[in-house]
Amino acid sequence: MSVKWVLVFPLVLMFSGSSSPGKVLVWPIDFSHWLNMKVILHELIDRGHQVTVLVPSSFLGIDFSQPSQFHVEVISVPFSKEDAEALMQDFIRMWSYQRHELSFWRFSMNSFDLMTDMLQRSKIICDTVLLNETLLGKLESAHFDLVIADAAMPCGELVALKFNRPFIYSLRFTFGNTMERLCGGLPSPPSYVPATMGGFTDRMTFTQRMGNMFFYLSQDILFHHFLFKEFDNLFSEVLGSMVKNLTDEKSALVALALSQLPQKVIWRYKGKKPDTLGANTRLYDWIPQNDLLGHPKTKAFITHGGTNGIYEAIYHSIPLVGIPMFADQPDNIGHMKAKGMAVELNIHTMTAKDLVEAVNTVIHNATYKENAVRISQIHHDQPIKPLERAVFWIEFVMRHKSVKHLRVAAYDLTWYQYHNLDVIAFLVTCVALFVLIAVKCCAFCCWKCCSFRKKTKKE
């Protein structure tokens, strides 16, 4: 008897050319960011490159007691791995739950405080590296060819500038596409490019476009005047899965819904075993997610909508039931829903019945599978594999030392030139002058005409 499987994973996580062996210095970010970075680094090592990873002692992604393919340079910082884990859990809890429980202003203040705390820790790590002459001397003597940094937190680019080395960003997103727009110069018209974390797609109503524009503006103000203000001085000096558990209530709700499905279910979950767990559901602390998604009997994927899971589902053409919680997850699930590959549920309002119906919909409504297959075929239709493409561009920079020829011209424009405000002002002035001259000419003609008539009547 054939067995159908439903893969459940709601609570985890977020390129060729020959080149002589080089030395790469890496400034990574923890958690799901490290998972993506690590794949590229392993490929670089397989191609003969030497990789040095610069991480704080609070870094959770690497077990320092175990041997590694990388050379790991550990920076001693005044906070532990437990502190880093607690801070991340606070961030997840705030965006997953408090966002729906607190007032807008209270939530905004809490968010600002938490982001300030994260950036302060990042600054401590940065200071620890840049003020350590012994470490800097050691790194400089290694003669690295390239620095790879994650733009989610600053300082990797500072290290590259300190050693006068080219650097490459590994980046999924920043709030409001801030780094991408302001540092990368990527065009992002608010009319159709949704700001990350805004929850919009590229098809927006008038109200959504207005909200998107204000979200961009608010992130620019935060970036320039608040969150990254402290790093300005630092630049001048130098130049000069994440969610482990649901609440007991939500766990019981999900377990109850899964028990009503005719399929067998694999659920990656680390919390207390729910009393409503059905005989068809198995709990695991860890699962080989990508392998299970590629299993021919997997019919659906219940996910929080992290980037890694989304791409794996696309690769294996598995339709989704999305329950986004924080960060880019609402955006990711929103895009999949717009493409007809997913059903979205709200974790705060959904019922067991909603979850059962959503799973049945993506399994039994053939449209979702068809769309998933179509998107997967587009995703697969590439001249080279994405990993090979990523490594190619890394080696490209190592070979040529500089890629200024690829830099967008926006770097050389002022803000008013970028938005063509000077051109618009000139055209408006021309039109205004033309109208003014036309009005004056008409007025003069009218005056002359009236004067001529008065003179004629007097005669």
From TrEMBL:
It is found in: Membrane. InterPro entries: UDP-glycosyltransferase (IPR050271), UDP_glucos_trans (IPR002213), UDP_glycos_trans_CS (IPR035595). The chain crosses the membrane at residues 423-447. PANTHER family: EG:EG0003.4 PROTEIN-RELATED (PTHR48043), UDP-GLUCURONOSYLTRANSFERASE 2A1 (PTHR48043:SF140). It holds the Pfam family UDPGT. Belongs to the UDP-glycosyltransferase family. Gene3D superfamilies: Glycogen Phosphorylase B. GO terms for molecular function: glucuronosyltransferase activity. SUPFAM superfamilies: UDP-Glycosyltransferase/glycogen phosphorylase. Residues 1-21 form the signal peptide. Keywords: Glycosyltransferase, Membrane, Signal, Transferase, Transmembrane, Transmembrane helix. This is UDP-glucuronosyltransferase. Its main location: membrane. Its EC number is 2.4.1.17. It comes from the Eukaryota. It is an enzyme of class 2 (transferase). It catalyses: glucuronate acceptor + UDP-alpha-D-glucuronate = acceptor beta-D-glucuronoside + UDP + H(+). One of its GO terms (cellular component) is membrane. It is a single-pass membrane protein. Coiled coil: none annotated.
